[in-house]
Design a protein that fits this description.
The structure holds two protein chains of two kinds. By secondary structure, chain A is of the alpha+beta class. Chain A is built from two helices and five strands. Chain A has a five-stranded antiparallel sheet with strand order 3-2-1-4-5, with helices on both faces. In chain A, strand 1 and strand 2 (20-23) form a beta hairpin. The longest helix of chain A has 12 residues, at 42-53. Chain B is an alpha+beta fold. Chain B is built from 19 helices and 21 strands. In chain B, strands 16, 17, 18, 19, 20 and 21 form a six-stranded mixed sheet that branches. In chain B, a hairpin with a 2-residue loop joins strand 8 (185-192) and strand 9 (195-202). The chains are: A alpha+beta, B alpha+beta. Chains A and B meet through helix 2 of A and helix 3 and helix 14 of B. Chain B: Residues 52-111, 345-395 form the Nitrite/Sulfite reductase ferredoxin-like domain.
Chain lengths: 104, 554
């Protein structure tokens, strides 16, 4: 019997900002994992990854990451993806920043 | 300090203009990421977990105040107000945006700095003893030769697409502060019959297959050294394995062929290469040496220093841990700790960088150094200025007296930033430092080097830590392996794995048990952790780390 397909999301980094982004069902790129399209079918996952890879002028390094359905949309299953959706643990930088930090 | 010639300046300007155009072509879609990636890496630009990262070379760890101020400017203008000093004497900016990077590189060029060859399969930034030029124990200042190596290796046509990266470290002292035995090539300056040359060590490295370098040649005179090094890199470039990136480094080539075979091949290649070197390199070296002439050390009384040392215990503690002997008896080498307890090892804010630049300009003959241990050094300071320097450092959280102690931890960025990491390093370092500060045991424990890597690539040098910590991903959970007895000095050794790893919550208590075991086991307060470990071996430390296993066996 084939192994059950574990649900996936398509994630990448933004070409200019480098920020972590997620592919949505309506073909946008969101900064928030909660807006990501949770893909439960393997063939569809491959297709969506291809869709992402074609957008080389917007994104870098698209890949499929494991995720599960949570109260607020998809959630990561691995701690690496948990850091990617949050930011580093030594400063409140990255997606934890509530507003853009002042830059001199 | 080396000052750029017109050639250097023109070269850098052209290179930066090329990269600016490459970035534009990437953004307008003319270049794919596959095409662009090797180009950005050649210019020090990585893509990490949350953002791009720009790695700027600080050649042989030497800076002047203007350069340090420019690093502060980059941190403030294009990053989040800080920079991270690394174990390869580089500085990394964790948050640049792609279209800002060409401006950052132009700003660096204004002060003769660049990010060239801080990545990719090239000869990387040449690192050196951070006390070079000031250390009381050195044969000669290794930096002129390091600068010659920088010029030789930059854009060297034969060495741009090698099997893998190649790292060279150089020291002028028998006491090795540059970890030369853990580099692809390590050079130790040696004088023989009045002629200056180097002992050449090859095939050291950490990473997934740690190796201590082997002696390729006991002495090569400066006259012949560049040709000899070119021959060595050339031999590896030809026979180094390109089929498997994990077997590509020269340490594997040396291991597979044996040092004698490699030496014979180098000698053969050297015979071909030597005639091509017609002495231009030596003329250049002589010219470079003039840039590194020692400052004229001022003469003054050291009475104020002695008074402060006697009367101020906080100052005395700082002097005892952070000051090293200088060539000139009235001067001292100051190591500024950027490892305040609980902070990220190696991170300095723009403001702190400016403070250190000001101190260098006012008191330090305008010189600064970055150490591979992620601290900043004022190499030449008259002792009478130490109280004033200490007072200024205190105002900016830079006066932590912990050099060489348990909280002076090397830690790689780990999974807080790095795309290759398998676990976090920084919070482990922060928690260990905070814990031992609370226990007030740090000075009692004495000399102890903890080094933490967040993956097997070992940027945090864990293999040569007296206590090494390696963060791994075990079945989707962070897990930390401990190695003991590593040493990055002239008596280099690779640490021994202590046993099964510990979870994120267990690792700091495990380190605490280990250190308390050492305090019980040591012969006397002067016996260091490493000495105790070498005397007693793994067993008693293992017993402290795994008390349950002991109970089960009983």
């Amino acid at each position: 019997m084939a192994r059950a397909f574990s649900p996936k999301i398509v994630t990448a980094n933004h070409l200019l900002e480098g920020d972590v982004i997620y592919q949505t069902a309506d073909d946008r790129w969101s900064r928030h994992i909660s807006e990501a399209e949770l893909i439960t079918d393997e063939a569809h996952a491959q297709l969506r990854l291809l869709d992402a890879s074609r957008q080389a002028n917007v994104i870098v390094g698209a890949y499929l990451a494991d995720a599960v359905s949570g109260d607020n949309g998809p959630e990561p299953t691995h701690f690496r993806e948990d850091f990617r959706r949050t930011g580093p643990s030594n400063y409140v930088h990255g997606k934890q920043e509530t507003s853009t930090q002042p830059r001199a | 300090m080396y000052r750029y010639s017109e050639f250097d300046t023109a070269f850098l300007a052209e290179r930066n203009a090329q990269f600016r155009a490459q970035v534009e072509r990437r953004i307008d879609g003319s270049l794919t990421e596959d095409e662009f990636k090797p180009l950005r890496l050649m210019n020090g630009l990585y893509l990490q977990l949350h953002a791009y990262m720009l790695r700027v070379a600080i050649p042989y760890g030497t800076l002047n105040s203007a350069q340090m101020r420019q690093l502060a400017l980059l941190a403030e203008k294009w990053d989040k107000g800080y920079g991270h000093f690394t174990t390869r004497q580089n500085i990394q900016y964790n948050w640049p945006k792609l279209n800002d990077v060409p401006d950052m590189l132009d700003a660096l060029a204004e002060v003769g700095m660049h990010a060239i060859q801080t990545s990719g399969n090239t000869i990387r930034n040449v690192t050196a003893d951070h006390f070079a030029g000031a250390a009381a124990d050195e044969v000669a200042d290794p930096r002129p030769y390091a600068e010659l190596l920088r010029q030789w290796s930059t854009d060297h046509p034969e060495f741009q697409f090698m099997p893998r990266k190649f790292k060279i470290a150089i020291t002028g002292s028998e006491n090795d502060r540059a970890v030369i035995k853990a580099h692809d090539i390590g050079l130790q300056l040696v004088e023989r019959d009045g002629v200056l040359g180097a002992k050449v060590i090859v095939g050291g490295g950490l990473g997934r297959t740690p190796m201590i370098g082997k002696t390729l040649n006991e002495f090569i005179a400066f006259d012949d050294l560049l040709a000899y090094l070119e021959a060595t890199v050339s031999v590896w470039n030809q026979i180094g394995r390109r089929d498997n990136k994990y077997k590509a480094r020269i340490k594997i080539t040396v291991h597979e062929h044996g040092i004698d075979d490699i030496r014979a091949r180098v000698d053969e290649r050297y015979a071909q290469v030597r005639p091509q070197f017609k002495g231009v390199d030596m003329a250049l070296l002589d010219e470079i040496k003039t840039h590194f002439a020692l400052p004229t050390f001022r003469e003054a009384s050291v009475a104020t220093f002695e008074g402060a040392y006697t009367n101020d215990p906080v100052f005395r503690s700082w002097v005892d841990t952070n000051i090293a002997p200088h060539k000139n008896a009235d001067h001292a080498i100051v190591t500024i700790s950027i490892k305040k307890h609980g902070n990220t090892p190696g991170d300095a804010t723009a403001e702190q960088m400016r403070v250190m630049a000001d101190l260098a300009q006012e008191f330090g003959y305008d010189e600064l150094r970055i150490s591979h241990e992620q601290n900043v050094i004022l190499p030449h300071v008259h002792k009478s200025d130490l109280p004033a320097i200490h007072a200024r450092l205190k105002e900016h959280e830079l006066a932590t007296a912990n050099i060489g102690l348990i909280s002076d931890i090397i830690a790689c960025p780990g999974m807080d930033y790095c795309a290759l990491a398998t676990a976090r390093s920084i919070p482990v370092a922060e928690t260990i430092a905070t814990r031992f500060d609370e226990l007030k045991l740090e000075h009692d424990i004495g000399h102890l080097k903890i080094k933490i890597s967040g993956c097997i690539n070992a940027c945090g040098h864990h293999h040569v830590g007296h206590i090494g910590i390696l963060g791994l991903d075990r079945a989707g959970v962070e897990n930390y392996q401990i190695t003991l007895g590593g040493d990055g000095s002239e008596n280099a050794s690779i640490g021994e794995r202590a046993g099964p790893g510990f979870s994120y919550d267990e690792i700091v208590p495990a380190i605490e048990r280990l250190v308390f075991a050492y305090l019980d086991l040591r012969d006397n307060a002067d016996e260091t952790f490493l000495q105790t470990y070498r005397r007693l071996g793994l067993a008693p430390f293992k017993a402290a780390l795994y008390p349950e296993a002991q109970a089960d066996a009983a």
